[in-house]
Amino acid sequence: MKRRWLVVLVFLALTVSFVYAGSGVDFKEGKWEITSSTEVTGMPMKIPSQTHTQCMKKASPVPHQKQPNQECETVDVKTSGNTVTYTMVCNTPGGKMTGKGKITYSGETMAGGMDMQMQGMSMVSKFSGRYIGQCD
Questions:
Q1: Assigned CATH class of 2-133
Q2: H or E element, residue 3
Q3: What is the DSSP string of 72-128?
Q4: What is the pLDDT of residues 4-50, one digit of tens each?
Q5: What would you measure as the largest C-alpha separation in the chain, in angstroms?
Q6: Cα(8)–Cα(13) distance, rounded to whole angstroms?
Q7: pTM of this prediction?
Q8: Neighbours of 24 (CB within 10 A)
Q9: Can you say how many angstroms the Cα of residue 55 is from the centroid of all Cα atoms in its chain?
Q10: Domain ranges in the chain?
Q11: How far apart are the C-alpha atoms of 88 and 97, rounded to whole Å?
Q12: What is the mean pLDDT of residues 96-114?
């Protein structure tokens, strides 16, 4: 059970750890608020939503939140208009996780999701973000 919680915590960190999606994506630079929710198959307890803020720039338009013990690589990043798809591969203390994600940006908002798989467990995350003002 402890290992399962570790996997869930790593996945939660990943839901806000996206990779560079390309400079052609339309969004407004500044401070963004990003909220994510995650469901894990086989987990009876509901995982609380997480919200964080981040200063986003055109040079790096993808939200991220670095976590310890997290070695992730994003591969197969594709941009089509304001939609970005990607694959994320992570080596964690609990094993290897692989997931596919999709983010769609629209000026001052974004929405997306990611589906991660690890040793028969499925973790589905949904996230949304909104521009809230100038960076500090």
A1: mainly beta
A2: helix 2-15
A3: EEEEEEEEETTEEEEEEEEEETTEEEEEEEEEEEEBTEEEEEEEEEETTEEEEEEEE
A4: 544 444 444 444 444 444 457 888 889 999 999 989 888 888 889 99
A5: 43
A6: 9
A7: 0.72
A8: 11
A9: 16
A10: 2-133
A11: 8
A12: 91
